[in-house]
Amino acid sequence: MSEKYFDKNAQKYTEDYYLSQIRHPKWQRQKTIEKLVKKFFKSSSCKILNLGCGPGLLEEDLSSFGFFGIGIDSSPAMINLAKNRSLEKNFSDKWQFFVGDCEKTKLNSGEFDCVIASGLIEYMPSDEKLLKEVKRLLKDDGILILNITNLFGWSTCLNRIGHYLKKSNKIVSIANFIKKEFFKEKVTVNKLNFNPRKHFPALFIRRANINGFELLFSEYQGFTVLPSPLDLIFNVIPGDLNNKLDFLKKTPLKFIGASNLLAMRKK
Ligand SMILES: C[S@@+](CC[C@H](N)C(=O)[O-])C[C@H]1O[C@@H](n2cnc3c(N)ncnc32)[C@H](O)[C@@H]1O
Question: Please, what is the average pLDDT of the chain?
Answer without folding.
Answer: 89
